[in-house]
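[step 3/7] inverse_fold.run input=structure_tokens len=150
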């Protein structure tokens, strides 16, 4: 009877952690892309609003209207800066997720190597045991055949 691999729970746990880290990295990448799309939308909106402002100012606009346009453009600039900050944080999260995945993969690979070594040891023991049985049977057969017939 062969001994079970005592570290099998750790092998299973390392596989689970690897799957979890892979899923988490995918989610972080999706979040970063969503935040990038928000920034692009803000930048496009700011560009469109600035064009409206230029057209309106060419057509003549009072100082209150100019002030309102400029205030809104300033708020858009603040939103763009804030969104860039959000994207930087998302990028840091993605990097941390990559590092966590790399660590989980290294750990999983280490435990898989230990499990494979254990399996190879078990196979070698089984081969030796089989060979021992065959040698004993061959010895018994030879002993029976070498005895003089009575």
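[step 3/7] decode complete -> sequence:
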């Amino acid at each position: 009877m062969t001994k079970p691999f005592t570290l099998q729970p750790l092998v299973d746990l390392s596989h689970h952690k690897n799957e979890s880290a892979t899923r988490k990295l995918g989610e972080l990448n999706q979040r970063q892309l969503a935040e990038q799309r928000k920034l692009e939308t803000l930048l496009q909106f700011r560009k469109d609003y600035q064009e409206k402002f230029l057209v309106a100012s060419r057509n003549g606009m009072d100082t209150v209207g100019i002030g309102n346009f400029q205030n809104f453009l300033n708020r858009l600039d603040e939103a763009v800066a804030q969104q860039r900050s959000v994207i930087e944080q998302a990028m840091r999260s993605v990097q941390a997720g990559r590092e966590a995945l790399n660590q989980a993969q290294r750990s999983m690979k280490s435990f898989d190597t230990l499990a494979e070594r254990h399996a190879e040891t078990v196979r070698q023991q089984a081969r030796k045991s089989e060979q021992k049985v065959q040698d004993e049977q061959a010895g018994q057969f030879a002993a029976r055949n070498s005895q003089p017939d009575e």
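[step 4/7] annotate
Helices lie at 8-58, 63-146.
The chain has one domain: 8-122.
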